[in-house]
Design a protein that fits this description.
single chain, 76 residues, mainly alpha, Arc Repressor Mutant, subunit A
């Protein structure tokens, strides 16, 4: 998480395998799997079957005025 926030792993970057990360951080693969699930649920990474795990780009945050949203809800 810190490496992603610092920019060590920029958006679109393919992360090392679970085994490589376990060696890099001197931990077990099970711990890496648990950590990866946390990063997935936070929306920081994404897994693409057959390709690997990648850092996701930061989401685009927009603001909507409540009055406009109220009209949208009525139209919907």
């Amino acid at each position: 998480r810190s490496g992603i926030k610092r920019g060590d792993y920029p958006p679109g970057h393919k992360l090392p395998s679970e085994n490589e990360l376990a060696l890099q951080f001197s931990t077990t693969r099970a711990t890496v799997v648990h950590a990866m699930h946390g990063l997935l649920s936070e929306g920081l990474i994404e897994r693409i079957r057959g390709k690997g795990t990648f850092v996701k780009a930061a989401p685009i945050v927009t603001r909507v005025r409540k009055q406009e949203l109220g009209f949208f809800e009525k139209d919907l």
